[in-house]
Amino acid sequence: MNQDKIIVGAISGAFGVHGEVRLKSYCADPAAIADYTPLSTESGQVFTSIILTGQVTNALIARVDGISTKEQADALKGQSLFADRSRLPAPEDEEYYHADLIGLSVFDAGGTALGTVKSVQNHGAADLLEVQIPDSSATVFLPFTKAAVPLVDLSSKRIVADPPDGLF
Amino acid sequence: MARSVWKGPFVDAYVLKKAEATRESGRNEVIKIWSRRSTILPQFVGLTFGVYNGKKHIPVNVSEDMIGQKFGEYSPTRTYYGHAADKKAKRK
Asked: Which residues are in the RimM N-terminal domain (chain A) (predicted)?
């Protein structure tokens, strides 16, 4: 999968005998997965419409175009679903998609490389960028604030950080 | 059972000392603490604490709505990596 595709969910199996599937959504709002169609699988299969018909524990029930029997639904079990990055709505001011932040290089004000963004976490206080230190397995959490991260440049894929003392 | 009100909130003394020293110095630094049991007090608002989770210090920017909670609540001891999907982060 290329960079323009974002994983938004997976098919966890068939539901019933009429061709419905159990859908696992990774979206912040699980039902939003239906808004990001067309969705594609790793094997290249494309689903142009997904209609949510219900939900069970840890899964949504959906009717997917082109799938009308239980056998067809069973064959899709375990398939990840990818959406085009362009299908996601534009974020608000000072908001960034995790998918856009992950992989960005982090530099300090002097231009020294501090690492790359491995993940974005939120433990209840504020968003934190998990920065992978170069040539090390260690990671450091950097508060995602204007003070600690004065510049996010998505076009050049770099972040300029001014971390508090004692962090790196 | 809840803690008796007459005792007041519990805070380890060294946390108070470190917070006071950092506030007086005016430096932008992470205050490393190991006391996950300490209560977040109003005088901690605006400071950044590095709360130990058993492996490393997780930065916690204290805001007003965190007053009365414990530091440990903001420094999970287990790691979970979900999928990024359409999740967003807001720079404050």
From this structure: 8-86
- Classify the C-alpha dihedral A41-A47-A52-A56 as positive or negative: negative
Question: Which residue of B lies nearest to A95 if distances are taken between CA atoms?
Answer: B90
- Tell me the chain A residues in contact with residue B28 when contact means C-beta distances shorter than 8 Å: 147, 164-165
- Across the interface, which of A8, A122, A152 has its CB nearest the CB of B86? A8
CA distance A96 to chain B (A): 5
Q: What is the pLDDT of residues A103-125, one digit of tens each?
A: 999 999 888 999 999 999 999 88
Helix (H) or strand (E) holding B87: none
Q: Which residues contact B65 (CB under 8 A, 6 or more apart)?
A: none
Q: Do B27 and A165 touch (CB under 8 A)?
A: yes
Give me the CATH topology for the region A5-86.
Answer: Elongation Factor Tu (Ef-tu); domain 3 (2.40.30)
pLDDT tens figures, A47-96: 999 999 999 999 999 999 989 999 999 999 999 999 998 899 999 999 99
Q: What ipTM was predicted for this assembly? A: 0.88
Q: Which domains does chain B have, with CATH numbers?
A: 27-76 (3.30.860.10)
Task: Give the span between the Cα atoms of B71 and B66, in whole angstroms.
Answer: 9
| pTM, two decimal places | 0.88
CA distance A87 to chain B (A): 10
A164/B48 touch (CB, cutoff 8 Å), yes or no: yes
Rounded to an integer, the average pLDDT of B12-19 is: 97
Beta bridge partners of B40: none
The Cα of A10 is separated from the nearest Cα of chain B by a number of Å equal to 11
What does the block give as tokens for A119?
């993940």
